[in-house]
Amino acid sequence: MTEVGVAYWWAFAFGDLIIYAPLLAVGLIGFGLRKGWGRIILAAALGITVYWPVVSLAVVTAARGAPGWTLNDITAYWVVLPVIILWGLWGLWVVLRHA
């Protein structure tokens, strides 16, 4: 992976740390307390939960064979990431059911 690729992944990890993790925590707390704002915030976090595995699957699939890319066996990604996608979709369904 090039230095730009490393910077790209670091930036997204940093964004997840300062935006996604607090969003998920506040949403879970608010949803648990049955607050309307908690549902909205939790739905936003679960949307991100679905979005990132889809992006990651697209990247590892599209990058195979690219110069500088050394990750060619992506089987584990196709096992784990769809589970996370399904979990996020299930969570969104639960939140919308309680809206």
Can you describe this structure?
This protein is mainly alpha-helical and 99 residues long. The chain has one domain (3-97). 82% of the residues lie in helices and 0% in strands. The chain contains 3 helices and no strands. It has helices at 3-32, 36-63, 75-97. Helix 2 packs antiparallel against helix 3 (75-97). It is elongated and about 50 Å long. The model has no long low-confidence stretch (mean pLDDT 90).
In short:
With 99 residues, the protein is mainly α.
Question: What is the CA–CA distance across the termini?
Answer: 43 Å
Number of helices: 3
Q: Helicity range of the residues?
A: over 70%
In oligomeric terms, what are we looking at? single chain
Spans of at least 5 consecutive residues with low confidence: none
Overall structural domain count: 1
String of helices and strands: HHH
Q: What amount of the residues lies in strands?
A: under 5%
Largest sheet, in brief, is:
none
Number of strands: 0
Break the fold down into its secondary structure elements and pairings.
Elements: H1 3-32, H2 36-63, H3 75-97
Helix pairs in contact: 1-2, 2-3
Keywords:
single chain; 99 residues; mainly alpha; 3 helices; 82% helix
